[in-house]
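Morning!

As promised:
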Amino acid sequence: MGLLCARLHRALAISAVLAVTFGLPAVAGGTVTVTFWHGMSGVLNPAIMELTNDFNKLNPGIVVDAQYQGTYGTLNQKLIAAVAAGSPPTISQVFPNWTDQLIRARAIVPMERFIKGPDGLSEEEVADIFPILRQENTFDGVMWTMPFNKSLYLLFYNEDLLKQYNLKVPETWEDLLAASRALTREEGGRTVRYGFVVRPTTDYFLLMLITNGGEFLRPGNREVAFNSEAGVEGLQFLVDLVQKHKVAYVLSAFADADFGASKVAMYYATSPGLAFAKAAVAGRFTIGLAQVPYRKTRATLLSGTDVAIMAKAAPEQQAAAWKYIKFITGTTGTARWFMRTFYMPVRRSARDSTLAQVYLRQNPEHRAGLDSLATARTAPNLAEWQEIRDIIQDAVEEAVLGKKTPRRALDDAAVKANRLLQQRK
Amino acid sequence: MLARVRSRRTRRLLDNLEAYAFLLPALAILAVFHFFPIVFAFFVSLLRWSMIDPVRPFVGVDNYRLLFQDEKFLQAVANTTYFSVASVGVAIPLALFFAVLMNRQLVGMAWYRTAFFVPHVTSLAAAAMVWHWLYHPDQFGLLNYLIGKLGLPPQRWLLDPLQAMPAIIAVAVWSALGRDIVIFLAGLQNIPQEYYEAAQIDGANSWQLFRHITLPLLSPTTYFILLVSMIGAFKVFALPLFMTGGGPLNRTLTIVYSVYQQGFQYFRMGYAAAQAYVLFAIIFLVTMLQRRILAGRVHYEI
């Protein structure tokens, strides 16, 4: 009898595992299982686990299983492969350009269906989400995804050094150049500290483009606009910092290690990069944060992912998933997420909440992030943008390494990017 | 009569059933992971398909036509050719040199042979990470530290458009050397000792022994290594993936890397499959060319 019982238990356990694996009967004993694929590593992982555990405690009958899948690149590959194989998770983090592709493949369901559903959001609650984020998550007039972890670019600087040299925090490009000049230090013919660092990435260039009044695309989304005068000037400015003024150097890796070692005084990074900067600096000096310096328009680049509900999930899973999304992107959820990770709150009410205000008093350097939100811009939410980013990156590398002039590099990149956009159905 | 023929045939089939059963696992694996993908990839190469989009228009040879106007792909072909010719060109003479040195009875020879073979059995991904660190562009990099001792300025290695590919080739040679040496050693030990003795009696010096006996009688081995190494070199992927990500300026972008990028980063499966077929054509041509030119020069005896 005992043996039989043990066997029965084992068989049940195995079938439960199989059921979870194949996602077939998602409802077993009244419990709905929701899998959530994300790419939040390091200090971000505990933050996501904390929110998820709280949700699970508050919602008996629903078990959300937040699973780390690797970097965003890996997450993208796994998600597409899982969709192709017909066994996607219930929820996934997605970049806007993935969303575009997933919509075309009919792999996700519009968030709007749930927002307007019986368990939905009021009009005020929708309007509470920052307009730029709503717009980024909207495709052909329908809100398909929900903004979740949105970061934005800031100027990171060594506050002690700026004080020591009596410099004010750079507001404009000219200030940035002047400060870089003052902070660059030579010893015995070798530069031991640079004022600024240029990472030859798409984002460094895009920041220069938008703070100089430039646009990503021409109206109609069939042609790029980054090779405008604004773009050329922006790239030229980066190249000049390195080659003409010699107050910046080129670095492919993340800059926080060099920043911590005081080899560079200022750099651009996204808001959650603060945790990595703090780890690298280890209390040796104060880290300052400011809005990205501008020439014509104050702006910064908003990045990070949204969450999508997959079409393949069972209706009760989708309903449970929506409940979870409402929880993590609600006023309290997003405010807590902001305080733990320095991703931006996605709602005005969260930004203005007592919780966030008290936190800001204790961590005043975070204010620059919230101030930047008002001027933040997002890159186009087109599937092709994924490849266009790499095309721009090649152009930035070519210019920074002196292989092409900024104008030539950007014009060449524009030709390639336009070819992709024109293939778009 | 007919019935008897049929029964004989049936009996033969039954007799061989066991053999077929043993073949089945291998056949099934080959069919699922090789034959089917080969055929399917060709079909995909005629489509425009994102892998998940239910709409997959048939575009015929469009993908192939695009390839030959795609600077990035053409650069990948040039890079791969550069890599293959240089890495194989350096590895084979070097391996021959070490194999000849090691083809003698000396104390500790087994230890030397093992030392040379270890890189080959090391996972390429792990080795690439270690080399990535050795090539660190600052004075922290071990290589820069060493050349600093010689009074040379630190180099950018993997970040320098001109140095990146040679740096990767060096790792490929380091990794392939052990395998080539082992095969050469086997070849060397197959050469009958009598030839050397006869030549020595005739007064041949050691260079003449090497040039007129070792080299020609080793030619089947050399030919084999050349073919296999070339095919392997054209398929290079792991080293650029882990060491440079194809950069800087796409100088280390190889064909397989490009296939990966198109297929699994931009999800343009049709275009990626077309590139894979072009790679197949290139390897096929190169192998045929080697057969044409070299097969006649392979000696099996003097």
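The CA atoms of residues 167 and 351 of chain A lie 30 Å apart.

Hope this helps with the figure draft.
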